[in-house]
Write a structure and sequence with these properties.
Elements: H1 3-11, E1 16-20, H2 22-27, H3 35-39, E2 48-53, H4 54-85, H5 92-102, H6 107-119, E3 123-125, H7 129-135, H8 139-148, H9 154-168, H10 172-176, H11 183-192
Parallel strand pairs: 1-2, 2-3
Helix pairs in contact: 4-5, 4-6, 7-9, 8-9, 9-11
């Protein structure tokens, strides 16, 4: 839909809501301050709801966390090079910035998303994600069993992997430098690295 068509659609007083999906946010590189995502703030003057499903929220949080981890590793390498080459005096800010950023926690990805939710006044739609996470460790073997017995597939299987990671705090990328993009990859890595609860 072109910009003019969208404005005409809105002006015709149709009830409207805009929802974000993972592929759109990924394509925009999770850049909430400029570009296509930011341009949507122009629609705030209309009676439009912005909606974010909790599945998209959790997927996005994982992707942003991976980007942060990669950036921090690069900064750490740069910081090590600076120490080795003794050029920190020539570029005094790099050492300070790198040391501060390396202290960033897993919460940083969530903070970025929460700012986005707040700035856009987004309504988060929750299904069952939070409820399962609240069950705690007792949910993990159940999810593992359901996955192994092919009772979970597609988005539900992927979501179960995110839930297991959230409950246990075992972030495979951060702890073992292992990346995964499918439920199958997650559960294989999860098992290979003995992360599962006994």
């Amino acid at each position: 839909m072109k910009k003019e068509e969208l404005i005409e659609f809105i002006n015709d007083s149709y009830p409207i809501a805009i929802t974000f999906d993972t592929s759109f946010l990924q394509k925009e590189n999770y850049n909430f301050k400029t570009g296509s995502i930011y341009n949507l703030t122009n629609l705030k003057k209309y009676d439009i709801k912005f909606i974010l499903h909790d599945i998209v929220y959790e997927e996005s949080k994982k992707h942003i966390h991976e980007k942060i981890s990669t950036a921090l590793k690069d900064i750490k390498k740069l910081s090590n090079s600076i120490d080795y080459l003794d050029i920190e005096r020539a570029i005094p800010y790099i050492g300070k910035v790198s040391k501060r950023m390396i202290k960033c926690t897993d919460k940083y990805a969530e903070n970025i998303l929460e700012r986005f939710v707040k700035d856009f006044n987004i309504e988060k739609i929750s299904c069952y994600y939070d409820n399962i996470v609240k069950l705690g460790e007792s949910a993990v073997p159940v999810l593992e069993s359901m996955y192994k017995n092919d009772k979970l597939s597609g988005v539900n299987a992927y979501l179960s992997a995110l839930i297991v990671q959230d409950i246990t705090g075992c972030n495979l990328n951060e702890r073992y430098n292992l990346d995964w993009s499918t439920a199958e990859e997650f559960y294989n890595l999860w098992q290979d690295n003995n992360c599962q609860f006994k």
